[in-house]
Design a protein that fits this description.
Elements lengths: L1 E4 L6 E7 L2 E12 L2 E6 L1 E2 L3 E4 L6 H10 L1 H4 L17 H17 L3 E7 L2 E12 L5 E8 L8 H15 L5 E6 L4 H9 L3 E12 L2 E11 H15 L5
Helix pairs in contact: 4-6
Length: about 240
């Protein structure tokens, strides 16, 4: 499997318009035997979002190993006996393939976050539910060395634009362990609505943890869209 991503001179995609300004999306393609899947790149002012591929393994491994102690306390424990994608290239390739299958099925959309072509973390839309719910969940993490630069709020705005304007979802939810102050700052910086605390909501690192639940709906997005884009996406004048 190989991937290419466009540049400002690459294949043009839809244009984002706000206040008379335009930001052009470009496309990248992921090639499989017999067919090619083309997706728009998702760009903010500084960040680029695209699906990870096997060629990203070395960068992924370096960040995950170096930031391990900082990250694993907020994550589910790996399945016993399963290889670790952070150190096993075949397991990482299987993870990438699983994310692409989710995308083909419309159930999830995983993205690596890149800053100046450097891998900085991930942000994902998961468990997409259609019908009367039109809901999905967002999770994110960032390289410890790149934390504190507001890359994650910017990536969230880029992802939300994709979710509400391309996928036509109605609601995005984020669930965060109460003591995870760094992740909660992202939600608070974006003024996501806090909707209460779910007790013993998810098993994280072997413990059933409470989670504060945040949400944004398409109505919220419409009301805040221009301000979000001016702050995080559109070029500064």
């Amino acid at each position: 499997m190989a991937w290419w991503h466009g540049s400002p001179k690459g294949t043009p995609g839809p244009e984002l318009c706000s206040g008379g300004k335009r930001v052009r999306r470009v496309a990248f393609a992921i090639m499989f035997p017999g067919h090619t899947m083309v997706y728009p790149e998702l760009r903010g002012r500084r960040v680029l979002l695209r699906p990870l591929s096997t060629s990203d393994f070395d960068a992924w491994r370096e960040v995950r190993v170096r930031s391990r102690d900082w990250l694993v306390k907020w994550e589910p424990r790996p399945v016993p006996g399963q290889p670790d994608p952070a150190t096993d290239k075949r397991a990482f390739a299987a993870r990438c393939s699983a994310r692409l299958r989710e995308r083909e099925l419309g159930t999830g959309y995983g993205f690596g976050v890149f800053v100046d072509e450097r891998f900085a973390g991930e942000i994902n839309i998961s468990s997409v539910q259609r019908g009367p719910f039109q809901n999905a969940y967002v999770g994110y993490w960032v390289d410890q060395a790149m934390a504190g630069n507001s890359y994650t709020p910017e990536a969230f705005v880029v992802l939300a634009r994709f979710a509400f304007e391309d996928l036509m979802l109605h609601r995005l939810q984020v669930s965060i362990i109460p003591r995870n102050s760094a992740s909660r700052r992202v939600a608070e910086k974006l003024e996501l609505r806090q909707e209460g605390t779910a007790l013993r909501y998810l098993e994280i690192n072997g413990v059933w943890e409470d989670h504060v639940r945040y949400a944004i709906t398409s109505e919220d997005w419409a009301a805040k869209r221009d301000r979000y884009l001016a702050q995080w996406v559109l070029p500064q004048s």
